[in-house]
Structures are given as structure tokens and as C-alpha cells.
Specification:
It is globular and about 60 Å long. The chain has 13 helices and eleven strands. β3, α2 and β4 form a beta-alpha-beta unit. Helices cover about 45% and strands about 20% of the residues. It is an alpha/beta fold and about 350 residues long.
Length: about 350
């Protein structure tokens, strides 16, 4: 069964195909190719599992390959240069299409390379991790990290298609699978209370990777994200809701060093910290906080910040966040379950209290 969603952005609209065995479905990829030339960007781990199948599906296309080092610590401008070098050496024109085969790091870097190469070429997302399938592959945010901050260098550049083969989750390590569940839970918190309740009832099935539960969770997550991106493509309003937990999470990732905690682990912890802050401010009941924390724990995610980072260091890192406005901290906070708000000029004393566990 294939489910196809559409992200409506006028001339930049694109399909999101979800189903099993889609890597072999060449007809789903062909409409996204501008010409018979493509560059697949992947890493050695994913390429060893899925590259041959993707190449076979594109057998009548000039399909070159560049493999990037595996891991968040390599998500940098220096690593990205390998993509540009490969494109130039293989004489790819402005009509080429870049194909991202991998997780969020590969997808973000491939999209940014596509935004930059010859001032913009097409690209396709073929995400192979749960987190990438439900979040980073949809919406057109691309970029790389800087030692002083996560995703501080990038561009909005929408893919021409997203191909989500749910079979790829069968080879995903348990830790990375749990990391993807954090972003799924986020969609329930920001605007879909029935989905949050469904996740509470289906978390055991999801952890067991039952195909139908996974398909529903991925499709619902993509549908929620597509709705928000269609309403606010460049994050001038409601798209900021998708950053729930991310200010705390990005501080954890930067403070520990990119890749020490997985992005989803940091976001999962950040979601709980945002909920604790909302509880302190009287916007979340104790029962609601308990439900959020319990679901995160059932997903196998951390709910306390790393002991290696002091509250003061976390706050220092949160001050260097691209979501802040006019020098003031700007966070997304839950208002009960299924509702969030953009909180301007959040009290640093309140944040410190939450980070310190008060």
C-alpha cells in the first residue's frame, strides 16, 4: 500500500510517498528528475544497505555517487565541499537532481548543496531513519552546523519529492529509532491531541516496529507537518511551533558536541524541559506534565539534561539560538496537551530553575 500526501506550495508543491518497498519504484522518482542526470548523496553505512537498489531503479539515468562521513559531527561546510567537487568532476549541469539517501544529516546537507550548486538545482529526499521520515525530509529546511550553533548556516529549498520506504526502518538501530519517536510525539503536543492519545495507546506497538502502527504514525506526522509548512513556509508564524523543545535540545547538542546525543534524544529531553517550564508558569497541569514525561520515557528517550552541562552553560548556549528575537529568549511552550504558544522574552531565572531541576 502506498499513501501519497501533497505539500501544497504552488509551483513548489511536491508529493510525499509513504509505503513499503518504494526504493524499487522508479516511477515515483522519475517525475522529480529534471533530466537524465542525478547525483546520489549518502554515507557508507546506508549505501551498503540500499544504494544498489536505488541505482537499479534509476538504471537509465547518469547516476553518480558521493559518500559523506557518517554522523552529526560531519555536518559542516568542510564536508559539503565533497559534494560540490563530485558534481563538478562529473560535469553535472544545472539540470541535475541531487538525491539524498540517508538520515537527517544527509538530507540537510544534500538539500543545502542543491540550493547552492549553480544557484539552485532540484533534489529528492529518500529518508532512511524514522526521524528524517517524519521531520527533516519534509519542509525544505536545509543547512549545516557551526561550532557555535546548530543549523546556523542554511537555506529554505524544497525537495521535488519525498520517498519514504518504511522497510528501511528494519535496519535502524534501536537508539536511532527512539530518537525518531521524539519528533512524532511533538506533533501530538503542538496541535493534535487525538494523535497524542493514540501514541499513548500504540507506543508498545511502535517500539515493536509493527508495520501498520508505523505507517499510521509516519503518515500522520507528515500530514501535520505539511499542513503547517503550507501555512508558513519560511517560519514567520505558526511554523515556529515545530521548534517545540528544540531550543533546549540544540543547546544540549552544541554543549556536548554534535553527535554525542542524537538530535531526537536532545529534542525529547527538550520537550520535557519545555513542559516543566510551562508547568512552572501555570500553563500545564501536573497530570499533563506526567503524561508527557511518561510517554517520552516509554519511547526510550532521556527526560533529564546531561549532567556534564551546568544550567548556566545550557542557558548560555540557548542565548545563541536563531529563534531568539532582539536579543531576548524566544521559546515554544505547551499550553495544555495539543496546544502551544510562542513565548517572547522568557525569564532567564525561570529557565535556570527548570534546568537546575527546581
Amino acid at each position: 500500500m502506498i499513501e501519497t500526501l501533497n505539500l501544497p506550495l504552488g509551483e513548489r508543491s511536491y508529493p510525499i510517498h509513504i509505503g513499503a518497498g518504494l526504493l524499487d519504484r522508479a516511477e515515483l522518482l522519475r517525475p522529480a528528475l529534471r533530466a537524465r542526470q542525478a547525483m546520489i548523496v549518502s554515507n557508507p553505512t546506508v549505501a551498503g544497505l540500499y544504494l544498489e537498489r536505488l541505482q537499479a531503479a534509476l538504471a537509465d539515468v547518469q547516476t553518480d555517487v558521493v559518500l559523506l562521513p557518517d554522523g552529526e559531527s560531519y555536518k559542516s561546510l568542510g564536508t559539503l565541499d565533497a559534494v560540490f567537487t563530485a558534481l563538478l568532476e562529473k560535469r553535472h549541469t544545472r539540470h541535475t537532481t541531487l538525491v539524498a539517501l540517508g538520515g537527517g544529516v544527509i538530507g540537510d546537507m544534500t538539500g543545502f548543496a542543491a540550493a547552492c550548486y549553480q544557484r539552485g538545482v532540484h533534489f529528492v529526499q529518500v529518508p532512511t531513519t524514522l526521524l528524517a521520515q517524519v521531520d527533516s525530509s519534509v519542509g525544505g529546511k536545509t543547512g549545516v552546523n557551526h561550532p557555535l550553533g546548530k543549523n546556523m548556516i542554511g537555506a529554505f529549498h524544497q525537495p521535488r519529492a519525498v520517498l519514504i520506504d518504511t522497510d528501511t526502518l528494519g535496519t535502524l538501530p534501536e537508539r536511532e529509532f527512539s530518537a525518531g519517536l521524539a519528533e512524532i510525539i511533538k506533533y501530538g503536543l503542538i496541535g493534535d491531541l487525538p494523535f497524542f492519545a493514540w501514541l499513548e495507546s500504540q507506543m508498545d506497538a511502535l517500539r515493536a516496529r509493527e508495520p501498520e502502527a508505523l505507517r499510521q504514525a509516519i503518515a500522520t506526522s507528515c500530514r501535520n507537518k505539511a499542513r503547517i509548512v503550507a501555512a508558513d513556509e519560511r517560519e514567520e508564524g505558526v511554523r515556529a511551533w515545530l521548534n517545540l523543545g528544540h531550543s533546549f535540545g540544540h543547546a544540549i547538542e552544541t554543549g556536548l558536541g554534535h553527535g554525542t546525543w542524537l538530535h531526537g534524544e536532545a529534542v525529547g529531553c527538550g520537550l520535557v524541559l519545555a513542559a516543566r517550564l510551562a508547568r512552572r508558569q501555570g500553563e500545564l497541569s501536573e497530570a499533563e506534565l506526567v503524561r508527557i514525561q511518561a510517554l517520552m520515557e516509554r519511547a526510550g528517550l532521556p527526560t533529564r539534561p546531561p549532567t556534564e552541562l551546568s544550567a548556566e552553560r545550557m542557558l548560555e548556549l540557548m542565548r545563541v539560538d536563531k529563534k531568539n528575537l532582539h536579543g531576548a529568549l524566544r521559546l515554544i511552550l505547551p499550553q495544555g496537551l495539543g496546544r502551544v504558544r510562542i513565548a517572547e522574552a522568557v525569564s532567564e531565572a525561570e529557565i535556570l530553575a527548570v534546568l537546575a531541576g527546581a
